[in-house]
Amino acid sequence: MAARRYRFLYLIIALMIVFLLSLEFFLPALLANMLEDYLRKEADSIAYLKIELASFPAVKLLRGKIDQAEIELEGLLLDELSLDKLDLHYKGVILKEDGFTGHNTWLEAIISEEALNNYIKAKFPELEAFQLELRPDQVYLAGKINFFEMVLELQLSGNFIVNDQREVYFIPANVRIENIDIPVNLLKAYIEGLDFSFNLEDLNIPLAIDEIKLNSGYLILLGGDNREEK
């Protein structure tokens, strides 16, 4: 009788171990699929999406708590803005019905010059005749505007800046009109009124953008508290 009881106890222990081990494999995949469905719902389209989750013990995932999450997206279209690539790392993630909260520890987004020009044409009719060019030192905008019933050939140079770790604005530094250099403040009010900016807020997830790197033909958004470790 005692031997049979011990065999039953060993069987229960073995089944519990198998159950816990299965959670380590099953739950991360299940929650990753839930996150994927959410992101695809928020975005206009995503060509490639990979999500990796880690929590120990995995049973925490049953409460929607994730120790670490890594999200990699390619070919992301969001409110007329196309991103070649978006990499995100998080810690302390808590899943919610309308997304998740968490600490954004790493962010890298790559946006091409072509994508920004398409975004300008789609979102800013006043700048439809403009062409943007990205260089390692500055951002250039050239085109025609209707300014007080005058059609002016306008060339702007400046840079993008980050506001509140979410919004990216173009700030002009110099203006050239019809081959004549003038102080930027003469057209400052008009240009700022166009409000040329973009953001990634339609994803409805925590983002912490704090740096912009310009390259020939594309820009890189960087952020996250731990990016210096990369």
Structural class by SSE content: alpha+beta
* Helical run tally: 3
**Helix content estimate:** 25-40%
Low-confidence stretches: none
Distance between the termini: 61 Å
The count of strands amounts to 12
The proportion of strand residues reads over 45%
Average pLDDT, all residues: 83
Oligomerization: single chain
Widest sheet: strand ordering: 1-2-3-4-12-11
- Order of H and E elements: HEEEEHEEEEEHEEE
Overall number of structural domains: 2
Describe the sheet with the most strands.
6 strands, antiparallel
- Dominant shape: elongated
The radius of gyration over CA amounts to 25 Å
Topology overview:
Blueprint: H1 2-42, E1 45-54, E2 65-78, E3 81-96, E4 99-112, H2 113-123, E5 131-134, E6 139-147, E7 150-163, E8 167-177, E9 180-182, H3 188-194, E10 197-199, E11 209-215, E12 218-223
Antiparallel strand pairs: 1-2, 2-3, 3-4, 4-12, 5-6, 6-7, 7-8, 8-9, 8-10, 11-12
Short description:
26% of the residues lie in helices and 48% in strands. By secondary structure, it is of the alpha+beta class.
Task: Name the descriptors.
230 residues, alpha+beta, 2 domains, 6-stranded antiparallel β-sheet, 3 helices, 12 strands, 48% strand
Describe the fold and architecture.
20% of the residues are buried. This protein has 2 domains: 2-113, no CATH class; 119-203 and 210-220, no CATH class. The strands form 2 sheets. A 6-stranded antiparallel sheet has the order 1-2-3-4-12-11, with helices on one face. Strands 5, 6, 7, 8, 9 and 10 form a 6-stranded antiparallel sheet that branches. The N and C termini lie far apart (61 Å). The chain has 230 residues and is an alpha+beta fold. 26% of the residues lie in helices and 48% in strands. It has helices at residues 2-42, 113-123, 188-194, and strands at 45-54, 65-78, 81-96, 99-112, 131-134, 139-147, 150-163, 167-177, 180-182, 197-199, 209-215, 218-223. Strand 7 and strand 8 form a beta hairpin.
